[in-house]
């Protein structure tokens, strides 16, 4: 990945972490390097999760995870822990709640012995070897209190469709524009109920 160059200090930190063993990725030696990696990918990805494209603009670093596409927790992929091609940045929903150490996204024809980062090895859109928007379009419109979010597979892209299903992107889709009038009516009803409850609690506390 062009643009992220490991310095001598970075490589020394990696060597120290490896030499100490244990939970290598969480070694204190790697804190500066991990911050560097996360900042790099936040910039490259335009402040979006590499899988669902949800915006991370203005968010603290702690709400995002450095994503290992081939899971570092799998013994067969441990050697790719520090491969830049295998790293990205994802939201916690995509990284921890959905993908985690799962490998069902790997193609049945995948060969990781010689060229592990070929597009054909992956059923979903790989953050570094595929162009996301060649496979999925991500449309977001926000106007005041109304929001519309929609994902669409580009030209029936197989990778786009797989990514949509794998990361349950339908759960993130919203179309509150078409529900605005009904939502406003419900909000007015709920507000009066909340006021009644609030007064009752105030009387009990008084």
Structure characterization notes:
It comes from Pokkaliibacter plantistimulans. This is HNH nuclease domain-containing protein. With 206 residues, this protein is of the alpha+beta class. The protein has one domain (8-175). The chain is built from five helices and five strands; from the N terminus they run ααββαββαβα. The chain has helices at residues 8-20, 31-44, 92-99, 158-166, 180-205, and strands at 64-68, 87-91, 136-143, 146-153, 174-175. A three-stranded antiparallel sheet has the order 3-4-5, covered by helices on one side. Strands 1-2 form a two-stranded antiparallel sheet. The chain starts with 7 loop residues before the first helix and ends with a helix. The mean pLDDT is 88.
Order of helices and strands: HHEEHEEHEH
For the terminal residues, how far apart are their CA atoms? Answer: 64 Å
Radius of gyration, in Å, reads 22 Å
Largest sheet: 3 strands, antiparallel
Structural class: alpha+beta
| Number of separate strands | 5
Q: What global shape is seen?
A: globular
Helix content: 25-40%
**Unreliable runs, pLDDT <50, ≥5 residues?**
none
Strand content: 5-15%
Strand order of the largest sheet: 3-4-5
Number of domains: 1
Nearest-integer average pLDDT: 88
Organism: Pokkaliibacter plantistimulans
Protein name: HNH nuclease domain-containing protein
